[in-house]
Design brief:
The chain has a single domain, classed as Ferritin, core subunit, four-helix bundle (Ferritin), CATH 1.20.1260. Helix content is about 80%, strand content about 0%.
C-alpha cells in the first residue's frame, strides 16, 4: 500500500512538472520566441544584431542538432514512457528553433553551420563527445534511461549558459527573447529530468 501511494504521488509530481514545462514553452512563445507573434518577418529578422547574436545562433544550431540526435534514440531504446515523452517534447521545441536561428543567420549575412562531428564540437558547452554518443547508442532499457538523463542534463545546462550570455550581451530583440525562452524552458526540463533520475 505504501509503495502504491508513493508511486501515485510520484506520477502526479511528474505530470505537474510536464504541465509546467509546456506552460513555460507557451509563455516563451508569447514572449517573442519562434512561435510568438513578435520577431517574425524580413524586417524583424534583419534588425540590428551584434557579434554576440551571431555567435549565439552559430553555436546553438549544432547544439540543438545534437539534442535532436539524442532524443531520436529514445523511441527505440528507452524503457521509461516518461523519458520517451520528455525526449519527444524536447525535439518538438528545438526543431523550429533551429529553423529560426538559421533564418536569422541568413538574413544577417552570416554563415549557417554545416554538419559538425561530435569530436569537433565537444569544446562547446554541454556538447557530447563521440564516445558519449556511441555509448548512448549502444545502451538499452534502464541503462539508456539513466545515460540519456545524465547526458541531456549536461547538454541543457550548456544551452542555458549560452542563452544567458546572449541575454546579457545580444542586441537582436528576437534572439534575446529566444534566449530567455531557452533558459526558462530548459531549466524546467532539467528539474524534470533530475526527478526522473531519482526514481
Amino acid at each position: 500500500m505504501h509503495h502504491t501511494r508513493h508511486t501515485a504521488r510520484r506520477l502526479t509530481t511528474l505530470a505537474l512538472a510536464a504541465t509546467t514545462v509546456c506552460a513555460l514553452a507557451a509563455c516563451g512563445a508569447r514572449d517573442g520566441g519562434p512561435s510568438g507573434p513578435r520577431g517574425h518577418g524580413p524586417d524583424a529578422d534583419a534588425a540590428a544584431h551584434n557579434a554576440a547574436d551571431a555567435a549565439f545562433a552559430r553555436d546553438m544550431i549544432p547544439h540543438h542538432r545534437q539534442a535532436l540526435e539524442m532524443t531520436g534514440l529514445a523511441a527505440g531504446r528507452a524503457s521509461s514512457p516518461a523519458v520517451r515523452n520528455l525526449a519527444a517534447e524536447i525535439a518538438k521545441a528545438q526543431k523550429p528553433e533551429i529553423t529560426t536561428l538559421e533564418r536569422w543567420l541568413t538574413s544577417w549575412g552570416e554563415r549557417v553551420p554545416g554538419a559538425m562531428r561530435h569530436s569537433g564540437a565537444h569544446a562547446m558547452a554541454g556538447m557530447m563527445s563521440e564516445a558519449d554518443m556511441k555509448g548512448l547508442e549502444k545502451s538499452r532499457g534502464a541503462a539508456f534511461d539513466a545515460a540519456f538523463l545524465r547526458l541531456m542534463i549536461d547538454h541543457h545546462e550548456g544551452a542555458v549558459t549560452m542563452a544567458e550570455t546572449e541575454s546579457e550581451r545580444g542586441a537582436h530583440g528576437g534572439a534575446k527573447a529566444l534566449a530567455r525562452r531557452i533558459v526558462t524552458t530548459q531549466n524546467a526540463e532539467i528539474a524534470t529530468m533530475r526527478k526522473l533520475g531519482d526514481g
